[in-house]
Specification:
Elements: E1 2-7, H1 12-16, H2 18-26, E2 30-35, H3 48-66, E3 68-71, H4 84-97, E4 101-104, H5 112-126, E5 147-151, E6 168-171, H6 176-184, H7 189-197, H8 202-216, E7 223-228, H9 241-245, E8 250-252
Parallel strand pairs: 1-2, 1-4, 2-3, 4-5
Antiparallel strand pairs: 5-7, 6-7, 6-8
């Protein structure tokens, strides 16, 4: 059983996906970590190339803490577009990893990098078995089922401020400190997020967002929220491997 997290920027996985990855790893899954962007724009003090180098090292350190295999980024910040070349490169990673599960951003989020990443992840998973579709670099097609899960958008709302409520909740309380430690690897982001998005402490912001997800599901503690992508073209209608494998940590929206 293999899970591939596909996010936009270094630290996005830690904010909304890392708790689920940690629980999967503890359950015996192989986990993979891919940010599409280098993170080159994430600083008010460093030049782009320096910032990308720093954030690459931070992401690699975070992946090690999560027990995940790190995959190199492929685009600049604000340069993640739903284009042919990027799609072929993402599809190559999907075929190489051959995941059972893909975790990615919400299709509705506060910025285009996140939404384009989600679209790329979905289509790359869909194209996994298409014999005539050529990836960059070339990878052989794979035929196993993939279940795609979308994380909560930042602020739990779509771009028009409409609330997004998960259908699947994963209780991450038991691994929250490890998730926090992985996010803390991205130390360069404290100043940037304070200046650009008013997050004050990015660690405290993650704590708050995780607590809000759990509260949405009617519980205390910390959680990550997920919505399943349509099964059509991906997996059987009944497939829900996160719920099946992490059943002791999972509850549904209707369960109170």
């Amino acid at each position: 059983m293999t899970a591939l997290a596909i996010a936009a920027h270094p630290d996005d996985i830690e904010f909304v996906m890392a708790g689920t990855l940690l629980l999967m790893r503890a359950a015996g899954w192989e986990v993979h970590y891919l940010n599409l962007a280098h993170g080159d724009l994430g600083s008010t003090t460093m030049a782009g190339q320096e910032c990308a180098r720093v954030r690459r090292k931070e992401a690699q350190a975070a992946a090690r803490l999560l027990g995940a295999k790190w995959h190199p980024p492929m685009r600049g910040d604000l340069s993640i577009f739903y284009d042919d070349r990027t799609l072929r490169r993402v599809a190559a990673v999907v075929r190489e990893v051959s995941p059972t599960v893909v975790l990615t951003h919400s299709l509705e989020d506060y910025m285009e990098d996140h939404m384009n990443t989600a679209r790329l992840a979905v289509t790359a998973a869909f194209a996994r078995g298409m014999r005539n579709y050529r990836t960059i670099p070339t990878r052989a097609p794979v035929t196993q089922e993939i279940t795609v899960y979308h994380a909560q958008p930042h602020g739990h709302m779509d771009p028009l401020r409409r609330p997004i409520v998960p259908e699947l909740f994963v209780d991450t309380t038991s691994v929250h400190e490890a998730k926090r430690a992985a996010l803390a690897c991205h130390a360069s982001q404290q100043e940037w997020l304070d200046a650009s998005q008013g997050m004050n402490s990015y660690l405290a912001e993650m704590d708050q967002l995780s607590a809000q997800v759990s509260k949405m599901g009617g519980r205390a503690g910390f959680a990550e929220g997920w919505r399943l992508h349509s099964h059509l073209g991906f997996c059987s209608a009944e497939a829900d491997p996160v719920r099946s494998v992490l059943r002791d940590h999972v509850w549904l929206r209707t369960e109170r």
